[in-house]
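Appendix B, example 12.
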Amino acid sequence: MSTDRNLLVGILAVQMSFVSKDDLVAAMNAWLLAKHRPLSELLQLTPERRTLLEALVAEHLKLHGDDVQKSLAAISSVESVRNALAQVDDADVQASIGSVSDGTIAQTSPHYTQDATLRFRIVRPHAKGGLGEVFVAHDSELRRQVALKEIQKRHADNANSRGRFILEAEVTGGLEHPNIVPVYGLGSYGDGRPFYAMRFIKGDSLKDAIEKYHGKTWSSDAERNIAFRNLLKRFVDVCNAIAYAHSRGVLHRDLKPANIMLGNYGETLVVDWGLAKSLASPVSAGAESDEPPLTTTCGSYEETQAGSAVGTPPFM
C-alpha cells in the first residue's frame, strides 16, 4: 500500500535528520493533494539525499521480507513523529501510523520489539509449564537454534501473570554467569503477549542424571566414583551460580534438580527463575558483588499472600 511505504520513507527521513518533523507533516499534507507522487519528491531533499533515502528504505524492506507493515512495526523511538503526524487529516495515513511500534508492551517496559516473527521462527514445541511454554525456534539473524519461551494464552490477560513472566525474563537476562542460562532477546507478539529467547540446551536435567546414577549397574567402584565426582562437580557449579545470584540480591526460590540443565559438553545451567525474588541488597553478609543489586522494570510480583510459601515443598 502506497500510504504505508510513504510513511516509512518519511519516518526514516526524520530519523536520518534529512528533514524535521514539521517538514514531514507539511510534505504529508502536500501528498494528500497529489497521492500519485512519491513522498520522497515532496520532502525537498537534495538529489543525493533522496537517492540515499530510497536505498535505505529498500534495504529496510529487504530486511523484513519486503513487508511494509513489518518494517513499520520494527521501527523504534518514533513516538514524537507519531504525535506530529496525528494532525494529518487522512484515514489511510492514520491507519498506517497504527502500524508503527510505540516500543512498549502493556506499559511495563520500554525496550521490547513488536513482532517475534521478525527474528525468531518457531520450529516445534519443546516443554510446557504452569505459566509459560517453551518452543524450539530458529534465530534468523545469527542462524542458530534457540529456546523461545512465551506466556500461555490463558494467562496472557492477567496483569500479575504477565508481570511475573517479564520479571523472570529480566532476572534471567540480568544475571550474567556461566552457569545461568543466557537470554538473547525479549519482546512481544502483535497481540501483546510477551516472549523471550534464550539458549537452547541439549542434554538432561540434573534430576535425570541423578536417577540414571542410582539406577545403573556399575561395572566397578572406580567407574561409580568417577560418575559420583562428576555429579558433585555439577553441584559445585550450581552453588557458584546461586552464590552469584545472591550477591546480586536475587533469590531463586525454586531450586531443584529438575531446574538444572546439564549440557552435552560439561555445561551446568540453572534455569526457570519464574519464582525469583529481586531484593535491594545482597542476600547475606559477605555476599557483596562488584556489580550492583539487580533491578527490574517490573518490581516484584507476588502471586501469594504475605507470609505464604512459594517453591516446590521437597526442595524448599
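The longest helix spans residues 221-247. Residues 13 and 297 are 32 Å apart (CA to CA).
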